[in-house]
Amino acid sequence: METKFITANGLRFAYLEEGTGPLVLLVHGFPDTAHTWDEVRPAIAALGFRVVSPFTRAYAPTEIPKAEDYGADTLGADVLALIAALGEESAIVVGHDFGAGAAFAAASLGPSHVRLLVTVAIPHPASAVPTPRLLWAVRHFFTLSRAGAAATIRAGGFAHIDELVARWSPGWNVPAGETDAVKRALREPGCLEAVLGYYRALGVRPPKSHRGRIKVPSVAFAGTTDVVAPEAYERARSRYTAGYEIVVMPGGHFMHREHPAHFIRELSRVLAPYRA
Questions:
Q1: pLDDT value at residue 132
Q2: Domains along the chain?
């Protein structure tokens, strides 16, 4: 598939695109790339949508920003700028992992530009309760923000990437080659060091764009074997004011790749009312 390029929020973004119709933006997380949506993108395009999956800031072949800026507000601004650069007033935004954080921020910063918010594997950040179990589950927030994290990830041919995927989706028998795309991206000069800036940008307290209530219709996908239990999504219900559905999925953090047919079926159902 052809990789396209567009300038948004001062950066040159690479992206993959299929279909025509209302815009659906699929935003990836870590450790991942736009290719995480390779089964989802054509299936949703076939329903009558224009589906775009960008490589988020610093993920090759997207440009690395000159100044380190990976906070949630910036990631949300990227989403809104991409919608505008693609020639649209609004979009359905689907975000996984850090992509979900970007999607939450976009819905908070520009609610009129987000027709529907779909988040995958991340409950509303303001609902998080720092229990010992959760802190252990997200210990990578600390380890990946430290000096030397890049060397740890590169060791053994990027074996740590596979360890992280296995940890977050513990029931998934990960197919051979499943993480090849992200390893290719991270091997590009400067990419890995830049991408770890996402973790260095995390603070103890959520940024302003993650503290308010979500004022657009929203759907949250929760995996039954993810490190964050589905109960956390129910606890987040008070953060939404315009409709909120929880879709409980089999699988872990990478549920959309672990059970793609099930995920596509549920996402198709959620998106059906928004077709042109």
A1: 65
A2: 4-274 (3.40.50.1820)
Q: What's the rounded Cα separation, in Å, for the pair 27 and 36?
A: 9
Provide the pLDDT for residue 135.
66
β-bridge pairing 114-120 and 218-223: parallel
Spatial separation of the C-alpha atoms in residues 259 and 192, rounded to whole Å: 28
Q: Give the C-alpha separation, 157 to 151, whole Å.
A: 11
d(CA 6, CA 110): 20
For residues 54 and 102, is the Cβ–Cβ distance under 8 A?
no
Peptide bond into 22 cis (omega under 30): no
How far is residue 239's CA from residue 30's CA, in Å, rounded to a whole number? 25
Determine how β-strand 91-96 pairs with β-strand 11-18.
Answer: unpaired
108 vs 120: CA distance, rounded Å: 17
Stretches where the chain sits below pLDDT 70 are 129-137
- For residue 88, give both structure tokens: 């649209």
What's the confidence (pLDDT) of residue 162?
94
Contacts of 221 (CB under 8 A, 6+ apart): 118, 119, 120, 121, 247, 249, 255, 256, 263, 266, 267
Distance between CA atoms of residues 31 and 144, nearest Å: 11
Identity at 142, one-letter amino acid code: F
CB of 96 within 8 A of CB of 27? Answer: yes
